[in-house]
Structure formats: structure tokens, C-alpha cells
Automatic annotation (TrEMBL), chain A:
UniProt KW Signal keyword: no
Residue ranges of the TM segments: none
Upper classification of the organism: Bacteria, Pseudomonadati, Pseudomonadota, Gammaproteobacteria, Cellvibrionales
Source organism of the structure: Dasania phycosphaerae
Subunit structure: Heterotrimer of A, B and C subunits.
Protein name, as recorded: Glutamyl-tRNA(Gln) amidotransferase subunit A
Function: Allows the formation of correctly charged Gln-tRNA(Gln) through the transamidation of misacylated Glu-tRNA(Gln) in organisms which lack glutaminyl-tRNA synthetase. The reaction takes place in the presence of glutamine and ATP through an activated gamma-phospho-Glu-tRNA(Gln).
TrEMBL record, chain B:
Record keywords: ATP-binding, Ligase, Nucleotide-binding, Protein biosynthesis
Gene field: gatB
UniProt key word Ribosomal protein: no
Family annotation (SUPFAM superfamilies): GatB/YqeY motif, Glutamine synthetase/guanido kinase
All copies of domain Asn/Gln amidotransferase, residue ranges: 328-479
Catalytic activity field: L-glutamyl-tRNA(Gln) + L-glutamine + ATP + H2O = L-glutaminyl-tRNA(Gln) + L-glutamate + ADP + phosphate + H(+); L-aspartyl-tRNA(Asn) + L-glutamine + ATP + H2O = L-asparaginyl-tRNA(Asn) + L-glutamate + ADP + phosphate + 2 H(+)
The protein's name: Aspartyl/glutamyl-tRNA(Asn/Gln) amidotransferase subunit B
GO molecular function, one term: ATP binding
Length: 483, 481
């Protein structure tokens, strides 16, 4: 059962080959048995999952067919889940039981999905290796000496290790696409505003976006049908009609123009990854697409730009974690100042502190213009690069990451090298565009990702291109050994 | 040396919306602590703000009322600082692109002169919660009911030159926001709060002196006191060759003293930046025009109307037309009694003195407009004299019934019976033959005065209930015989 995609599981449930309770129990057993190797879950909600599965089975027997009725899903521990610990990977929220559901969680519930639990992640989604989690690093199921990527590393590993048929993730600078690439799964970061951010613990509000992490493009489309849409509780969510993302999956790719940004194939790109991306592009040409070299001239500014804007927003977003109302509070505070400083010093990890400091500095009087304001101007230039490119091409492709999964501990003491792992993904968030990573081969026996970038709200086109590729290739069907 | 005072005001006005500026929680005053604090007000992780459209409309109404430009695109910013009553660790406010641009209001001073006070801008922001220090012996409590209550902050130019002007300006703003119905203006509940920027300079000097900001003033009286004290303090400093330091001062209403809260060097760096959770607020021309079309009557227009249609003096019109509640009360009395002049005298005289005495607002007056009109009618139809009316009013204030009940119960009806009055007049004249003789010898001018001398004993004999007009006639008739 754990080898089936969601599309296949839905057929199995429909045909009564198995029940949701059986399916859910199967996954719970696998988690119990195997997750010790990967540490992909922070919290497993077995009881609740079985109750939801039972309800789904009953609904199905009465002829009700919600979109994902009875399908088990894992949620990144960044989404507030009523009555369940929502830690965001931090000691700060280790004791936080959310009193409400995030909109994304609510939507999955309405769609009849079963929640298996909450997946591990970099603390407050800050990281590219899942090593900054208070709950310990997640291990890449393809090679447990290596990182799964981050920050949605728990979700990626859970899907790759078949400990969940699919999972939710969030992507602020590549946090869905990079772990998807490193773990050999499919991940989609929708257009900014396509999926509600309400109840998703904020890292950088103007960049954060939730999306699906799945075994196939088709499954990603199924999840997008549940997740996407306007939310009146989120002022930045888009008031734009939601298409049926499954409708155009099979559309022919003849005549589609693919843009290859020359800046994505330069220095620093692993040769095997480059090779796998070129092979994937060849495959697209076979499918009828034409290829065109394009330029995104401000690409190299994406990393510095991102590392001003994201920490600046984070420095304010994380101010609420002050030990006053919820979350971690230091022992026996002497006074208010002591309560604040010690709660935050003890409750946050190093990477979070580093970013709060950077952001606070960038917003300070006298530095604002040189850093934050300048970064916003660069952000516009980066966006314009894409706007211009999409006048010529339908879709942009390139590598998701410059390197395959690196070893645990290898880069954790060198933040700048770690930040450079996100070089191809960051600009997509800065521009607010939809981006996707799909498995495209192997480098050093580790999965590699092909990144697809679409124009605003063209998730359906990305899913269509990804699905056609997956019909023609079997990279997405490869699984780690030992499962 | 002669000094000139320069004053600028920052005025926080709580908007009378049903719900908070970024959440659906109620804004009602006085609920039990934290009963009106939702997940959003508590700044629980993952929560997001959504702007209350009514608050924006109220801000636009204020802008239109002061002739300001309404910025069709305005931005919410985050002002970062840590404080327990500020749940998010930042206040959502507007910094560089506020909703209301430059405008002006005209104030009238006691000598009847007028002056224009320019307003730099007005912006929308959220109120903070309250820290409660006196409830628990060793801990402070936090009540977040007020957190997120919508405010407009009105920032004036430094155009005021005395505490009188500052108070007149503050009162004018109060009358504008209450007339618009965008705030209840209830100062005792903190609906309007003032920060006062004060500096002094030698008279004739153009350059502004170093200013201080005194915060936390929540009544006109406190503001006036605080300005006086601060001006004195600054004059003392400068005259003794010392410097005024740029600082923020905190006024303590209990002691009437202000103390330095922080100096310029200690000032917070608030690290303002645009709030990424809120899109820029876009307001169409149509929305602005629709709001303009629905604007209620403003104090200036109302005062002009009171002069034109009720024949009030400009002074009376400013007293009665400034505040909406007072204006509505006055117009209701006038409507019911049919005499604007008497209505004006009673509302601005007896009634307002009594209200001031008991620190009551006119909307809480124990004597309703209709009841007061009933009293005035009895003056007009000579049932009682103006003097007796004050006695009746006092009884009405004490809840002893309407004018007719009181007059009846206390037997205060004016004696207008000619026969009865003639009898009393005869008795009084008979008791004072010397006075009568003096009268008969006097010239016309003196006679008028002497006539008044008989009035006292007559009123005494009738317990003040004699119809004074009739007594005058009878007296004149009898004495001239």
C-alpha cells in the first residue's frame, strides 16, 4: 500500500481494496517501525488519525466523496493544529498546543484527509538541512549520513521513506523544492497568495508559501485542489479563481517554449546535476517543447537580497515569542528584562538568533536605506527579470540545487555556504512565482531535482509539464533501498 | 526676557467601531480582563491581521472633515518594541504613507478671535493592551481587551502659542470626531488622549527651541496644567542659563507632576518597515465621494446654522453647537418649547452648570430635553417666573417629576389673580406710607427705582409666586392714583 500514489490509493479506497483505517494503520505501523532511522516526525497523532480514518470510511460507505477522503497526510509542524503540539521545530514552542487550526489544515479536514502527524523541520523554517531543529536532524532516506534538505526536511523524508503518501510543506526560499530535490520527490511552491498563510507560523511573511510534497505531479495536483484558494483571514491571499489542477495534466507539450537561464548553469553547479538537467531538457524536446536560452541578469543578487528581506521580516515576526503569553519561559525571571532576554536566549537556537540579529540590524535607523530599502529595490529588479523572460517563454527550467545532499554536519558551521545551496530557489520566492522540483536523476547516487518555474498563477502549466515528464520517465518512481 | 510658547499636539482618538482594527473582537469598554482578546489579539503564532473597513472609513471621514487630502494608497508599518501589553512585539501603524494627509481646523478663542491650526497628517493604528500593576501583590497582570482597538493619531503642526489655544484645538477635535460619530469622545475611558510637544523661544525669534513631549494626558484640564508647568520649567531652565533637553516626559494625573521618561539618547529605535501581512490600502475616488456625501453636519456649519436660524449669538452658537450631544439636546428643547432664546439660556446656563458640577455628560442628564422644554413652556405662559423655574428645575433634577408635577405638588403656580394681587399690593403700600410719599415726590427716573423697592416685600408675601409683570402694573396704577 505504501508504494501507491494518492491517485492509486483513491482508486483502492473506492474499490474497497482496503479501508482508510487499514491504510492509516499501515502507515502508523511503518512510522513506528522505521522513523527511528529518519526522525521525520515530531508528533504522531495515531489516535486522532484512526478516528479520522474511521469517519472517512463511514462517509465513503454512505456515498460521500470528499476530494481526499480517507487519504493519510503528514503536516509540517509549522501549521497550527487544534489540540496538537505545534512546535515549529523550536524549543520556544515545545509546550505550545495550538488552540486553532490553520486554514490549510481545515481544508484538508474538509477534504476528508487523515492527519498522521506533524513533521520535523528546521527551527522556524530557517535552514536548508533540517539540522537546526530542536528535535534533532532529519536523515535523508537515500543515505542517512546526508541531510534531507530543509526546511521542510521532515515532510520530504517522510514521503521519500514512504511514511506518508504525501505531506504539506512551506517554502520561503526553497524550503519545499530543495528538500524535494534532495529526497527525490515532487514538490510545488505555489504563487505567493495562492494558498492561505493563516495559521502557518510566519518566518518571512512576504515570501512564505505552503505547498504539496508528493510522489508525483498528479498527486501534487490533487493536493493543490484542496489547498488553493482565497482566504478572508489572510489579506495577502489571492482573490483569483482556482482551476481544477487535474484537468490539464495530460495536455500535449508540443509548442511549449522552455527558457534556460544561462545564470543557472554556471560556476558552482555540480557536473552530474547539470548532466541530469540537460538530459531532462532533451526529454522535453522529445515531448515537443522548444528550448531557448534566456538571461535572468540579477540572479547573483538573489542570495544577498533574500538574506536581508527574510531576516528583517523574521526579526519582527518572531518578537511575539517573548515568554509572556505562551511558549517557553525561563525559570524564575528576576524582572521583565530578564524574562524577555533569558526566555529568548534559551528558547531560540543559533540559526534563529543569527537571523533575528541580521534582520534587526538591517532595519535599524541609519542602515534601513542601505539594506532593507536597497534589498526591496533589488527584489523588484529580480521580479522584472522574470516578467521579461515570461514574455518569451512559457516555463523556465534549471537545476533545483547546485549540489546533491551533503553530509550531516558538513555545512552547519558555515552559514554562508549553506545559504548558497538555495541560489536557484530564492529568486522564485522574491518574485512570488510558482516553482516546482521533480526528480530528474542521480548525482553521486543521490537524487537530483529539476526545477520548473512558471508565470504567476500558472501552477496548472507546471503540473502539466511535470506530469508529462513523469509519464515519459521513471525517476519519480525510484525509491531508496532498504524500505 | 519675554518668551513665546510653541505647542504641537499628537492626539490619539479611539474609533467607535464595533470590532477591532485587525480582528473581529469587540471593542466595548469595561468587559472582564482578556474576555475580548481573540487568537489574533493575543498574537498567537500563525495569526494574521485583516483591516477593519469601518475604521478606514472613519479615518477618511475625519480627513474630509478637516479638508485634508485622502491618500488613495496608504501603507501599514510595523513599529517594533517589546512591552508586555504589545502582544506582537510591534505595533501596526502608519509611518510614511498615512491615510489622511495635511489639513486644518479653525479654533475660536475666548476673545472671539479665530485661528487656523494646521494638521500635518492623521494615521490609523492599533491601541495596545493594559498592564495592571495593582491587582496582584508580586506580579503584573496584562489585559489585552484594548489591544487592537482602532485609533487615529492626529498630528498637528506646532501652530499653537498658548495652553488656551492648545485646549481650544483639542476641544475642536473632540467636537469634530463626536459630531462625525467616529468616536464616543469619552475621555474618562481613554477615548481621546494627548501627547503635547512644548518648546519656548524668545519672542520674535524664528528658530524653534528644543522641545519636550509630555505623554499620557487624558483630559483638557490635565493638558492645560501640564503645559503650564512645562512652560514654567523651560523658562526657569533657560533663564538660569541651563538647557532644555529633548526628552519624553510622563505626566502623572494624581500628582499633577511630569517626570522625564527617556532622553533623546535613550529613544527607542522602532525599526519601522512596511507590514508584509497587509497589502497597501487602496481607496477609490468613488469610495471617498460616497463617504463625503454621507458626512453628517460638522460643528462649524452647525454653529453658523444656529446663528442664522435661531438668532443665537456667535458665542452661544459655539457653546451649543460645538458638541453633537449638546447641539442635539438644544435643538430638541427648542423644538419642544418653541423658544430658541430661552432654550439656549437654559441649556448653556442652569443645565450645563449643574452637569459640570456633577461631572455628567449631557447625554446622561437626569432632566431630558423634553422635560426642560416643559419647564420653559411654563415660564413662557406665565405659570411660573424665571426665578421659581430654577427651583422647579432643581426638583426635576432630583427626580421629583416633570415641571407640571413639581409646580402642582409644591404649589408654585404664579399668582396672576388681579384681585388677590391688588389686595397684597394694598397691604404692602399701607405698611410703608413713607415710601409711598417718597415715590409721589420723585421724578420719573427715580420712581422706576423706587417701584422696585416695593417688589421685594410683595414677592416675600407671595413666596415669590406673584406674577412680576402684573405686580408692576398694579403698583404703578395704585401709586399714580
Amino acid at each position: 500500500m505504501h508504494q501507491l500514489t494518492i491517485a492509486e490509493l483513491l482508486k483502492g479506497l473506492d474499490s474497497k481494496a482496503f479501508s482508510s483505517v487499514e491504510l492509516t494503520q499501515h502507515y502508523l505501523d511503518r512510522i513506528k517501525q522505521l522513523d527511528g532511522n529518519y526522525n521525520s516526525y515530531i508528533t504522531v497523532t495515531a489516535e486522532q488519525a484512526l478516528a479520522q480514518a474511521q469517519a472517512a470510511d463511514q462517509a465513503r460507505s454512505q456515498g460521500e466523496h470528499a476530494l481526499l477522503s480517507g487519504i493519510p497526510i503528514a503536516h509540517k509542524d509549522i501549521f497550527c493544529t487544534s489540540g496538537v503540539k505545534t512546535s515549529c521545530g523550536s524549543k520556544m514552542l515545545d509546550n505550545f498546543i495550538a488552540p486553532y487550526d490553520a486554514t490549510v489544515i481545515e481544508k484538508f479536514q474538509q477534504a476528508g484527509a487523515v492527519s498522521l502527524g506533524k513533521t520535523n523541520m528546521d527551527e522556524f523554517a530557517m535552514g536548508s538541512s533540517n539540522e537546526s531543529s530542536f528535535y534533532g536532524p532529519v536523515k535523508n532516506p537515500w543515505n542517512t549520513d546526508t541531510v534531507p534538505g530543509g526546511s521542510s526536511g521532515g515532510s520530504a523524508a517522510a514521503v521519500a521513506a514512504q511514511l506518508a503518501p504525501a505531506a504539506t510543506g512551506t517554502d520561503t526560499g526553497g524550503s519545499i523544492r530543495q528538500p524535494a530535490a534532495l529526497c527525490g520527490i515532487t514538490g510545488l511552491k505555489p504563487t505567493y497568495g495562492r494558498v492561505s498563510r493563516f495559521g502557518m507560523i510566519a518566518f518571512a511573511s512576504s515570501l512564505d508559501q505552503a505547498g504539496p510534497m508528493t510522489r508525483s505531479a498528479e498527486d501534487a495536483a490533487l493536493l493543490m485542489n484542496v489547498m488553493a484558494g482565497l482566504d478572508e483571514k489572510d489579506s495577502t491571499s489571492a482573490d483569483k479563481a482556482v482551476p481544477d489542477y487535474c484537468a490539464d495534466l495530460n495536455q500535449d507539450l508540443t509548442g511549449m517554449t522552455i527558457g534556460l537561464p544561462k545564470e543557472y548553469f554556471g560556476k558552482g553547479l555540480n557536473a552530474e546535476i547539470e548532466h541530469s538537467v540537460q538530459a531532462a531538457i532533451k526529454e522535453y524536446e522529445n515531448l515537443g517543447a522548444t528550448v531557448k536560452e534566456i538571461s535572468l541578469p540579477h540572479t547573483e543578487l538573489a542570495v544577498p537580497c533574500y538574506y536581508i528581506i527574510a531576516p528583517s521580516e523574521a526579526s519582527a515576526n518572531l518578537s511575539r515569542f517573548d515568554g509572556v503569553r505562551y511558549g517557553y519561559r525561563c525559570e524564575d525571571p528576576e524582572d521583565l528584562y530578564d524574562l524577555y532576554t533569558r526566555s529568548r536566549a534559551e528558547g531560540f537556537g543559533d540559526e534563529v538568533k543569527r537571523r533575528i540579529l541580521v534582520g534587526t540590524y538591517a532595519l535599524s535607523a541609519g542602515f534601513y536605506d542601505a539594506y532593507y530599502k536597497k534589498a526591496q529595490q533589488i527584489r523588484r529588479l529580480i521580479k522584472n527579470d522574470f516578467v521579461n523572460a515570461f514574455k518569451e517563454v512559457d516555463i523556465i527550467m534549471g537545476p533545483t540545487t547546485p549540489n546533491p545532499a551533503f553530509n550531516l554536519g558538513e555545512k552547519s558551521n558555515d552559514p554562508v555556504t549553506m545559504y548558497l545551496e538555495d541560489i536557484y530557489t530564492l529568486s522564485v520566492n522574491l518574485a512570488g512565482l510558482p516553482g516546482m522540483s521533480i526528480p530528474a536523476g542521480f548525482a553521486d547516487n543521490k537524487p537530483t531535482g529539476l526545477q520548473l518555474i512558471g508565470n504567476y498563477f500558472e501552477e496548472a502549466r507546471l503540473l502539466n509539464a511535470a506530469h508529462r515528464f513523469q509519464l515519459a520517465t521513471d525517476w519519480h518512481q525510484q525509491t531508496p533501498s532498504g524500505l | 526676557m519675554e518668551w513665546e510658547t510653541v505647542i504641537g499636539l499628537e492626539v490619539h482618538v479611539q474609533l467607535a467601531t464595533q470590532s477591532k482594527i485587525f480582528s473581529g473582537s469587540s471593542t466595548a469598554f469595561g468587559a472582564s480582563p482578556n474576555s475580548q482578546a481573540s487568537a489574533i489579539d493575543l498574537a498567537l503564532p500563525g495569526t494574521l491581521p485583516v483591516v477593519n473597513e469601518q475604521a478606514m472609513h472613519y479615518a477618511i471621514m475625519f480627513g474630509l472633515a478637516i479638508g485634508a487630502d485622502i491618500n488613495q494608497r496608504s501603507i501599514f508599518d510595523r513599529k517594533n518594541y517589546f512591552y508586555p501589553d504589545l502582544p506582537k512585539g510591534y505595533q501596526t501603524t502608519q509611518m510614511d504613507e498615512p491615510i489622511v494627509g495635511a489639513g486644518a481646523v479653525e479654533i475660536q478663542l475666548a476673545d472671539g478671535s479665530h485661528k487656523t491650526i494646521r494638521i500635518h497628517h492623521a494615521h490609523l493604528e492599533e491601541d495596545a493592551g493594559k498592564s495592571v500593576h495593582d491587582l496582584f501583590p508580586t506580579q503584573s497582570g496584562i489585559d489585552l481587551n484594548r489591544a487592537g482597538t482602532p485609533l487615529i493619531e492626529i498630528v498637528s503642526e506646532p501652530d499653537m502659542r498658548s495652553s488656551e489655544e492648545a485646549v481650544a484645538f483639542a476641544k475642536k477635535l473632540h467636537s469634530i470626531v463626536t459630531s462625525l460619530g467616529i468616536s464616543d469622545g469619552d475621555m474618562s475611558q481613554g477615548s481621546m488622549r494627548f501627547d503635547v510637544n512644548v518648546s519656548i523661544r524668545p519672542k520674535g525669534e524664528d528658530k524653534l527651541g528644543t522641545r519636550t513631549e509630555t505623554k499620557n494626558l487624558n483630559s483638557f484640564r490635565f493638558m492645560e496644567q501640564a503645559i503650564h508647568k512645562e512652560v514654567e520649567r523651560q523658562i526657569d531652565l533657560l533663564e538660569y542659563g541651563e538647557e532644555v533637553l529633548q526628552e519624553t516626559r510622563l505626566y502623572n494625573a494624581d500628582t499633577g507632576e511630569a517626570r522625564s521618561m527617556r532622553s533623546k539618547e535613550e529613544a527607542n529605535d522602532y525599526r519601522y518597515f512596511p507590514c508584509p501581512d497587509l497589502l497597501p490600502v487602496e481607496i477609490s475616488n468613488e469610495t471617498i465621494e460616497a463617504i463625503r456625501a454621507r458626512l453628517p453636519e460638522l460643528p462649524d456649519a452647525r454653529q453658523a446654522r444656529f446663528v442664522a436660524s435661531y438668532g443665537l449669538s456667535e458665542y452661544d452658537a459655539s457653546i451649543l453647537g460645538g458638541e453633537r450631544d449638546t447641539a442635539e439636546y438644544f435643538e430638541s428643547v427648542t423644538q419642544h418649547c418653541g423658544d430658541a432664546k430661552l432654550a439656549a439660556n437654559w441649556v448653556s446656563g442652569e443645565l450645563s452648570a449643574r452637569l459640570n458640577n456633577e461631572e455628567l455628560s449631557i447625554s446622561h442628564s437626569p432632566v431630558s430635553a423634553e422635560a426642560l422644554a416643559g419647564l420653559i413652556k411654563r415660564i413662557k405662559d406665565n405659570t411660573i417666573s424665571g426665578k421659581i423655574a430654577k427651583q422647579v428645575f432643581e426638583a426635576m433634577w432630583q427626580g421629583e417629576g416633570d415641571a407640571d408635577n413639581v409646580i402642582e405638588a409644591k404649589g408654585l403656580k404664579q399668582v396672576s389673580d388681579t384681585g388677590a394681587l391688588e389686595k397684597i399690593v394694598d397691604e404692602v403700600l399701607a405698611q410703608n406710607p413713607a415710601g409711598v410719599a417718597q415715590y409721589k415726590e420723585a421724578d420719573d427716573k427715580k420712581r422706576k427705582k423706587l417701584l422696585g423697592g416695593f417688589m421685594g416685600p410683595i414677592m416675600k408675601a407671595t413666596k415669590g409666586q406673584a406674577n412680576p409683570g402684573m405686580v408692576n402694573q398694579i403698583l404703578a396704577k395704585k401709586l399714580n392714583q
